[in-house]
Design goal:
The complex is a heterodimer of chains A (251) and B (459).
Chain A (H helix, E strand, L loop, with lengths): L9 E5 L4 H11 L5 E6 L3 H11 L4 E6 L8 H10 L5 E4 L7 H6 L1 H29 L2 E6 L12 H21 L4 E8 L19 H14 L3 E4 L3 H9 L3 H6 L3
Parallel strand pairs in A: 1-2, 1-4, 2-3, 4-5, 5-6, 6-7
Helix pairs in contact in A: 1-7, 3-5, 5-6
Chain B lengths: L2 E2 L8 E4 L8 E7 L3 H9 L6 E4 L15 E4 L6 E5 L4 E5 L4 H8 L4 E2 L11 H6 L7 H4 L6 E7 L5 E4 L5 H7 L8 E8 L1 E2 L4 E9 L2 H11 L5 E6 L11 E8 L7 H4 L24 H14 L3 E8 H5 L17 E9 L3 H14 L7 E5 L13 E9 L5 H14 L3 E2 L9 H7 L3 H11 L8 H6 L2
Parallel strand pairs in B: 1-3, 3-5, 4-5
Antiparallel strand pairs in B: 2-3, 6-7, 7-11, 8-12, 9-10, 9-11, 13-15, 13-16, 14-15, 14-18, 17-19, 17-20, 18-19
GO molecular function, one term (chain A): oxidoreductase activity
Pfam families (chain A): adh_short
Family (chain A): Belongs to the short-chain dehydrogenases/reductases (SDR) family.
Chain lengths: 251, 459
Amino acid sequence: MKDAFGAPQSLLILGGTSEIGLATARRLVTRRTRTVFLAGRPSEGLEAAAESLRSIGAEVHTVAFDALDTGSHEVVLGKVFAEGDIDMVLLAFGVLGDQARDEQEPPAAVQVAQVNYTGAVSASLVCAAALQTQGHGSLVVLSSVAGERARRANFIYGSSKAGLDAFCQGLADAMHGSGVHVMTVRPGFVRTRMTAGLPAAPLATTPGEVAAAIELGLRRRSTTIWVPGALRVVMAGIRHLPRPLFRRLPV
Amino acid sequence: MPVPFAAGPAAEAVSVTGWGRTAPSSAQVLRPSSYEEAVAAVRECGGRGAIARGLGRAYGDAAQNAGGAVLDMTGLDRIHEIDAVNGLVVCDAGVSLHRLMQVLLPLGWFVPVSPGTRYVTVGGAIGADIHGKNHHLSGSFCRHVRAVELLTGDGETRLVTPEDEPDLFWATAGGMGLTGVVLAATVELMPVETSMMTVDTERAADLDDLMARLTADDHRYRYSVAWIDLLARGAKTGRAVLTRGDHAPLDALPDRLRADPLAFRPGRLPAAPRFLPDGLLGRRSVGLFNEFWYRKAPREQRGRLQRLSSFFHPLDGLPEWNRIYGRGGFVQYQFVVGHGEEEALRRIVRRIGSRRCPSFLAVLKRFGDADPGWLSFPVPGWTLALDIPATLPGLAAFLDELDDEVAAAGGRVYLAKDARLRPDVLARMYPRLDDFRALRSRYDPRGAITSDLARRLGV
């Protein structure tokens, strides 16, 4: 059960090697979290992530989970929920893709869309239903400011996050009053493996800061959070920029 | 909204919180109006069990049951029998202390223990083994309970008395409803001549002065409590206003009140508005309030006549007062440390002061002898209760540190107020926890009775 400050005791991370996911887990383990399920494709990275959380005192289980294999989600995630209540699900998987290549290779672009959107939709629905049955819990979904307005430089990724973001807004309303809290997280540019080598955008942030924002959002039961918070204002402006101007922006 | 029981298992789940309005979870709220319906609800509850709920005054998640059933007991509200000669009442669990006062005061009887609000049910009073300003003399509520009609998780109804089934009785006393659903109880009453109180008020300049005064003459008063200013620092740390008193005898009343000495007509303001912003009770506003409250109190005043409701339940005058903390809600922290641990109390009060926790409802009380309830809160010593807005940054970690101080001093926190304790600290605070767990599995092998609090703390 979560406590009065929204700190969960058990945590399921979908995308168990995600740096934002792990930063969040580390932060929550120092609060109340004792049990962590890391779901992802079996790999050394996943085991290493599990070990790093064990070393700070958590009881960690790894779960073989593939976002693209939507047919298996119900069974795989159902097993996790059968072990006991999950107070918080963090949907942290996603791929950035390579915009230039993906434009040339439609199948690669489709895969970005499938991981980031279709896979996330399937996993979210499965988890939301399980949380609803247990009558409590938070579903935290990592969206992105890239979904707020599609940019020339990464509109394939951006459009998949736009779809996910819209889905989550609707899901949050669908779950309203059911005891299940759905929170959409819209980080800006986060310095991680995924963005390594890319020039950092203004207001760039770190996995640790995203984790702190998530913890605060849980306490406040927020439905949408921006990291850093200033992006809420910045993006409100960008969303309304005239297109000819926006196209010329060096972002 | 509670649904009529007839709606059956199809009843829709609704979001439920405690009085502190934190950590909502959803449950089917059923409102049994007979013992048979309550028995059926427990027997037919699903895998996520059921828990009894009274008037929802527990601050945390004690009367919540995510995904399961919450039995709203206020539908069981009959007073079965009043023995006005010997002072005994037999009533359903859903009868509130407010109702008991309305019915019993005109007959010259009063509840044996009254907490800070009259809006608690008899079942809730047993489940939390509540205490009041007379704890130093009268102990907690269950000391005055002669018998309990208890519906245990196996679906059986048992008449439990402290003589015949001491284990089950004293596990139920303070057991947060986890031994079963209290259906009815027999409670011993206290005779009073009037519905007025004679009250002595005095100020204490600091915490040591306060403890000295409480130690010196608490035994001369039936009721004793101190409001304490936790925002005061330096030499003023722990300054307080003591209010102590007793029921006024008939001859203490002026003529105009003698015509109807047992009148009970508490006034109520309109309810607090539904949507108030967070942060209304910040450091500045609470600091001003505390300064005012301390200065307003007379330095020393003897024998003032006060209405019973304003002496015991000042906050009941503002219905839904918990809304003043806004959407973010609040937590109440109440702990007790034993006699001889005054240094721990001083340290904690200093820490709260230097952390500037905006708390305007802080209360210090000296407890008397403990009762045998297994998870019952009071032990002889000092108890401090304070309300804090849940949105205060860093509060979670700060209260965790206080838990460690309290546990190290052999003290404990009160489960009826709790919404955030760590499970591993609970066992250090309540040494009979393992016995309690064993008893629960004996009377409730399939775990039909459970709550969010039980899940969170692993009770």
